[in-house]
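Hi everyone,

Forwarding the result from last night's run.
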Amino acid sequence: MRKIILALSIFFAICFTAQAQTNFSGGVFTNTTLTLANSPYILTGSVVVFPNVTLTIEPGVVIKIEEKSYNVSQQIYLEVRGRLVAKGTSANPILFIPKTAPSLGTDYIWQGIFVKTAQGGSIDMDYFTFNNSYYGISYDDVLIDTLTFNECKFNYNCYTLAINTNVVVNNCEFINNAVSHSLIYVYGSVTANNCLYKNNFACMSTIVNGVNVNGCTFENNTNCCIQITGKFTNCIFKDNNAVFQENGTLEIDSSQFINNEIGINALGAGSVRNSTFTGNTLALSVGSNSIIENNTINNNDVGLGLAGMFTTGMVLPLIKNNKICFNSQYNLENKSDYNLSLDSNCFCLNDSVSIDAKIYDGYDDITRGLINFAIYDTSCTNIIQRVIKINLGTNTSVSTAQRIVNVSPNPFQDKLTLNGIDSKICTWTVFDITGKKVYEVISEYNKIELELSFLEKGAYILKSDYYAPVKLLKY
């Protein structure tokens, strides 16, 4: 009897195992659900969800992908011409993972998910893990919509998101990818809240309509942000090779830069406020049209660098109320020919010789500009003495007529929103590339919206009474 019971137990175990693993490939022509009971599903070939059909994946389902070839074009993919609903839960996420762990963690063994928005394709995904793909999740066309992911995890992918729509990611992880966000076509923005970016080659690259990043941690990445515009608030940047470089207008507030090779390189238009920089090889380097205010820049190799050449009508950087102290090589390195007064900044030293020894300027290299500074008391509150190397007069003061206005979205389709403008009455004029005036409006508010749907596709220039010109692109 014991032998019979044991044999039956083995039989039922084999049957249960066979039922719990399901091969899956080919076309999905009717509404189909991948159930937890039949999980894991083995993708033995590519899958196409046809138009007007929904493929639903239940919470907790595991999708395992077979590795077909090292050649990307021959690898398995999931193509969505209809609708994919893959909504896991925090307790039961959906997994898209290799059937067999790659010999190298960075091996890309499948192509990923292609959403054919031109055919009506769409996805609704939440609480999932997405590993070892080449293209990640990608769209073939513009979708004027917002896609939200909660608690998603992208690991060991070449790209994670290359999609033509606005993306919101909340509490997600992007680890060991080549590029985490790369909206490389003509439309899309990224909003990231409380996310982790770690060990990626690049975290955010070429996102057309900018980013809004809050409470995120960027750690041990080669490049955090390349060719990005947007806002970063309450973020931590730690042990990265380069955090910001080759970027557009940036607004950085209340963030920490710790032990990076390069914190911010050649910031142009934009601002850095209420942030701390420590242990970086270069904390930050800034050019014209930038505002550096209320930061603590201590114990780096080079604290603050100035880059660029002075030209007529340019806006010099506004640098005030910062503590720039105890940086080992220079507190300030002037690589430009700007002559600036930085007497509203504290250098935490009590004599002019010691302070000047940590400022590299025209006294050290005649091709550089000169820096005026002040000696403060130990509280960095009261000025004891001002050191004037050059009389600046009024010729190089920061011009309020050349402040930068935040324009979004840009490129735009119908409307433009102007943020961060003064409440004073201002005339805004749009010119086409021939210089012809095509639109004009007078504003007296802090935030205004321009209705420009009537314009043809192409490039335009926005000019005003008090702000620098902005190049616009309508698609």
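Residues 1-19, 394-402 have pLDDT under 50 and may be disordered.

Cheers,
N.
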